[in-house]
Amino acid sequence: MLEIVVNIALLVIAIAMVCLIYRVIKGPTMPDRVIALDAIGINLVAIIALVSIMLKTSAFLDIILLVAILAFIGTVTFSKYLEKGVIVEHDRRNR
Amino acid sequence: MSLLHWAIVSPFIFAIMVPIVYKYFRKIHTGWFILPLPILLFSYFLSFLSNTRENQVTSETLTWIPSLGIDFTVKVDGLGLLFTLLITGIGSLVVLYSIYYLGKNKEKLNTFYTYLLLFMGAMLGVVLSDNLIVLYLFWELTSFSSFFLIGFWYDREKSRYGAQKSMLITVFGGLCMLGGIILLYLMTGTYRLSEIISLVSPELFEHYLFIPAMIFILLGAFTKSAQFPFHIWLPDAMEAPTPVSAYLHSATMVKAGIYLVARFTPFFGESPVWFWLVSGVGLLTLFWGSFNAVKQTDLKSILAFSTVSQLGMIMSLLGVGSAALHFESIPDSYFTVATTAAIFHLFNHATFKGSLFMVVGIIDHETGTRDIRKLGGLMTFMPITFTLSIIGAFSMAGLPPFNGFLSKEMFFTGMVRVQEMGLFNLETWGILFPIIAWIASIFTFVYSMVLVFKPFTGKYQPEKLEKKPHEAPLGMLISPIILASLVIIIFFFPDLLSESIIAPAMASILPSLLSGTETFHVHISAWHGFTIELFMTIGVVALGTILFLTREKWKQVYNIFPEKLAFNRLYNGLIESSQRLSHTFTNMYMNGSIRSYLIYIFAFFTVILATTLAVKDAFTVNTTNLAPIGVYEVLLSLLIVIGCIAILFAKSRLTSIILLGAVGYTVSLFYVLFRAPDLALTQLVIETVSVALFLLCFYHLPKKRNEERIRFKLTNLLISIGVGTMVTLIALSAHSNKLFDSISQYYVENTYTEAAGKNMVNVILVDFRGFDTMFEITVLAIAAIGIFSMIRLRLAGRKER
Predict the structure, then answer these.
(1) Is the pTM of this model over 0.90?
(2) In chain A, how long is the greatest CA-to-CA distance?
(3) Are A17 and A43 in contact (CB under 8 A)?
C-alpha cells in the first residue's frame, strides 16, 4: 500500500521537476531560473526522502539536510550576484 | 693485470698526467715528456718478435664482466704484433715530429697530447684485444679521439665540418660492426675472437646469420678504412694538424679496418661473398682514389686520396688472398702471394706515407701554403726535403730501388694469379682484376710525380708565398729521414721483414694452411726475371710519364666527369635533406595545437584497443549475472543522456555550465538510488563547488568573445564516437569476463570486529586502506597551495612594475 503511495508521489514530483526544468531552460529572466533551481532543490529533498522510504533506510537523511542547505546557499549567492554583480566583496581597507 | 695490460693502459694513464705536466713545466715542450712512452712500448713489443716467429701466441686475461662473457683478453700474435710495432714505432716518430711542428706557445699542447695518447692506447687495444666487445670499445675510442684530433683547431669551420663528417661515418660503421659482433655471438656463443675462428665449419657457412654478420663487420671495416663509397671523410680529415694526418690517417687508424678484415679472414674467408666484396670494393677504391688524387691541388688532399687508393689496394689483396683458404696446402706460396703482398704493402705504406705527410707538413710549415699552384722551384731551398719526397713518392709509385716497387710487383703477381685459381667463376670476370690494378697504378704514378715535381721543380714564385722558404730545422727532419731510410733498407734487405714479421702475420690470417709447427716461408726478391709483372711496371712507367707530361691537355676530363659523381655532394645532400625532412615532419605533427595532440591520443587509443579486441577476439557479452533494471534507473539515465546531449548543442556557455551541474546532481541521485550515501553527500557538495568555480571562470571571460555553438567537425565526431564505443565495448567485455569473486566479503565481516566501525566505506578509507586517503589529502593540499601561489605569485608582472 505504502509502496504505491510512494510511487505516485515520486511520479508527481518528477512531473513537477520537468516543469521546473522547462522554466530553467526557457525562463525569460535570470531570477526566473534561480527561483526554479531553488524549487528543484526542494523537490530533490522530497525525492530523496521518498526514495529512503522506498529503500527502507535512514542513511540518506543527511543528504536531505545537505541539499536543503546547498539550495539555500545557492539561491542566496545567485541573488547577491544578480543584485551586486559580485559574490564575495573585497574589503580593501583590511588588506 | 699483466705487463701486457699495463702496456695498453699506460697511454691512458699518461693522458691523465699530460695536463698536470703541461701546467707545471711550461718551459719545456710537453711532447718531450710523452716521447719516452711510445719508444718504451716499441722496445717492449720488439721483445715479442722471437715468440711470434715460432708462431707462439702470448695471451693474458683480465676478468671484467665474466657473467656476460666479456673479459679483457689480450693476445699477441703475428698480425697483432705487426700493428703494435707500427703504432708505437710511427707513434714515437710522430711525437718527435710534432714537438717541432707545434709551437710551444701558440698551440694547446695539453689537449693535443691527451687526445694523441688516448688514440694510441685505443689503437693498441683494438689490435691486441681478443674479446670482440673490448675490441669494439677501443674501436669507438679511436673514433672519438680521431674526432677530437681532426677538430683540434676547433675555431675553424672546415675542421669542425671534417670532424663531424668523420665522426658520423666511422660511428655509423662502428655501430654496424657492433651488430655484426652480436650476430657472431648468436652464431657461436662466444665473444672470444680466437674461439670464434676455431669454430669455423661448413655448418656455420650455411647459418642464416652468416652473411648478415659478414656484411655488418665489413661495413665497420670499410668505413674505418675509408673504402668506397665511405672514403669521403678521409680528405676532409686533412684539416687536422699534419702529425695527426701522418699518424692517424695514413699509418694507423685507417688500417684498423684492414686489421679487422685480416682478422676475420679465417672465419669468413672461404665464402665467395667475402671474396667478391672485399676484393671488389678494394679494387674500386683503389681505382677511384688514384683517379681522384690526380685532380687535387692541395698536397694533403693528394695524399688523402692516395691513402684511400692504397688502402683499397691492400683490401683487394686481402680479398684475393682469402681465396687461398680453399686449397688444402700450397707448396710454393703460389696463391698466398696476395696475402704476403697485403701485409708487406701495409708495412711499406705506413713508412712512405708517414714520411710523405711529414714532408708536406714541412713544406706547409716553411712556405705557408700547401697549394701546388703556388709552389714551385723549392728544390734549391729545401734539398733534404726534396730528397725525402722523392724517396716517398717514388716508392708510392712503385719504382726501384724503393720498397714500393717490391710490394707493387707482388700486387701485380697476386692479381694476375686470380685467374688461375679456378674459383668463384673467376674465369670470366677475373681478367678485370689485373686490368683495373694496372690502370690504377698508372694514375698512382701520375699523382706521385705531381707530388714530387710540382712543388720542387719549375718556376719559383716568391710573390705567392707567405714566408721566405728555407730548409726545415733538423728535429723536424729526423722522423721523415728515419722513415725514408726504412723505405730504402727494406728494398735491399726485404728478408729482414719476411721471416720476422710477415710470415707470423700470415700465420694469423691463414692459419688453416699450416699444420703443426710449420711456418710460412716468404721470400721477397727484387728480380723475378722477365715476367709479366715486370712488363706491367714498365708499362705503368711509360704510360704514366706520358700522362704526367700531357696532363694539362686531358685535365678537362675531370671538369666534366667527377663533379657530378662526387660522393661529397650525396653526403651533404643526405645530411641536408634529412635535417629538412625531419624538420618538416616535426612541424607537421607538432603543430602546437592541443586539439591535434588530443586527436592523436584518442585516435591511437581507439585504434589500438579496437585492434586488440579484434585480434584477440576478446569481445564477449554475458548476460547471466546482470541485475534487473528498474523504472527509476531508466528515468535517471534518460535525464543524464538528455543533459549530455544538450551540453553539446547549448547556445551559450552559461547553459552548458548549468546543464553540467544538472548532470552532476543526477549522478548523486544515482548514488542515492544505488545506496551509497557517503558518495552522494560528497558528490553534491563537490558538484556545487565546481559549478560555482565554472561560473567564476565564465564571469572572467573576455567580453569580446562571441557566444556560439560548438562548431561541427567530422573527425571530432568520428573520434568521439570511436572512443565512446570502445569504452562501452570494453566495459561490457570486462563485466562478462569476471573470473573471480569480489573480496568485499572480508570487509563486510570484519568492519566492526577488526576496526570498530559500522560505516564500511569510512572504515575502508581510514583503516583498511588509509594510505590512499593520506595521499589524496596530499593532492588536495598541493592543489590548494598551487592555486594560492598562482594567484599571489606574479613574477612576470612584478618585473614590469
Answers:
(1) no
(2) 64
(3) yes
